[in-house]
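FAQ: What does the model actually see?

It sees only this:
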Amino acid sequence: MKLILIRHLPTEFNRLGLLQGRRDEPIALPSADVLSQIRENRKILDTMPPFDAVIVSSLRRTAMTAKHYGFADPILDSLLDELDFGPFEGRPRADLMAEDGKAWLENPYQSLLCEFVRDLESRVRQFVAIYSVRNTVLGFAHGSWIRALLSVLRHGNVADMNRFDVPNNSLTVLEVMSGN
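And it is asked to produce this:
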């Protein structure tokens, strides 16, 4: 399966450096730079084969992003939902780093959020199992979700998911084999 992922457009929480996780925050009014990046990403999407499915999470920021890309009727699938940041939701990312930074970065299975991380990894694996029978899938997702998928595909687990960044409105193109 060719899997194309776009991280949702920035929200006010993103701009303020706050962890939103499962909070259902809307996107912020897109700036001229964001709109320009959407146009550039659309050029890439227009070179792709037709999408067998366009999928968003149950959090409205992904559906709002899909709409900005011209996809008004995507499939909603909660498997794409963002990581639950538990007690850190609505707080600055710096709080998580101060309380749990070493474990969060080096081995999220040992972090304060380990149960949420295991749930995220399970949802990523379920998503791949369900959609890998498709040829080309476009998903509008979240930063931790995309990082978790990349880590699973590269290393077989999510242990490295917090060692790199996936910016808002970034486009990632992957070839995902059944059984990953």
